Amino acid sequence: MRAVIEPLREVVDPPDLLTELVEDVLEAVIAHGDLLELPEVASTAERPRTLVYEAPPTFIVRSSGAVLLLGIAGEQNSLLPRRFERHVERRGHLRILPASIAADIVSHLDGLGFTELSEKAWLDPPMHVTARGFIDWFDRALSQEPDTGPIEGLRIIDPGSEIDYYQGRWGDAADVSGNVVARRPQRFGPDLWCYVTLEEGQPRRFLDLPIGQIRYRACDEAWRLQAAIDADGGKSQRLRIRVGASGRRTFDVFSPLPMWLARRWDAMGDRT
């Protein structure tokens, strides 16, 4: 990410805005499926670090007949020949072949190095469970972890904070007690997502995320867990709907969306 930010640092003001923009774009392309966030393949560590890999060129035929293009073609801009590339619609990080032309192109994609992924597999959500049931699953796993001492630099999502300002929910442990979603620093790389038991602000045990299916990222699991905690505490996450003069609807969300929700939103409309 630093390689993208540094050349543009003098162009975008303030610099923090550039960092936030790059982080948002990176999050969008990972959630969409152009990049894959996976454990390091060659690692022998008990908990290998997470790396970002290029997804192979992939296509998804939507129920509407349109085709979504995913993945990265190495150092090439596209695997599509120019006669096909000119039909691709770009909306932010999305690349779409409209239904009007897609049927004529799909039969050529296999020969061009693309692999088909079903729409169902791409949009498939995790198993349904109640908020309380989801929390109980993590609480049981956390209770089996060994005791821990102080964790320097630990930041938590305050479960008592208002849900409509995500960045403002983060802070130090202070005198908080209970099980909370948190991030803890590591020597190299981004902070790790975890679930922590606190007693008057002091960590007693922690559980690194994810603990579920490897197909979901640590942040996906953490955001879903926090949504469950909020709902169980009577403060379910919400969205705001704004209707423009043309009748176009804009949905405002106040917390990051897990990958499966972000994909469904990509399938339904445009991000702003």
CA-based shape = globular
Question: In terms of quaternary structure, what is this?
Answer: single chain
Class by alpha and beta content: alpha+beta
Give the radius of gyration.
21 Å
Which strand order does the major sheet show?
Answer: 5-6-4-3-7
Give the beta-strand count.
14
Put simply, the count of helices is 8
Q: What's the structural domain tally?
A: 4
* C-alpha termini separation: 22 Å
Helix content: 25-40%
Largest sheet: 5 strands, mixed
List keywords for this structure.
single chain, 272 residues, alpha+beta, MutS, DNA mismatch repair protein, domain I, 5-stranded mixed beta sheet, 5-stranded antiparallel beta sheet, 8 helices, 14 strands, globular
Structure write-up:
The protein folds into 4 domains: 2-53, no CATH class; 56-123, MutS, DNA mismatch repair protein, domain I (3-Layer(aba) Sandwich), CATH 3.40.1170; 131-232, no CATH class; 239-268, no CATH class. The chain is built from 8 helices and 14 strands. The protein has helices at 2-8, 15-32, 82-85, 99-109, 119-123, 131-143, 218-232, 259-268; strands spanning 35-39, 50-54, 58-61, 67-70, 89-91, 94-97, 115-116, 155-157, 170-171, 178-184, 192-199, 202-208, 239-243, 249-253. The strands form 4 sheets. The chain has a 5-stranded mixed beta sheet with strand order 5-6-4-3-7. Strand 13 and strand 14 form a beta hairpin. Helix 2 (15-32) crosses helix 8 (259-268). The mean pLDDT is 88.
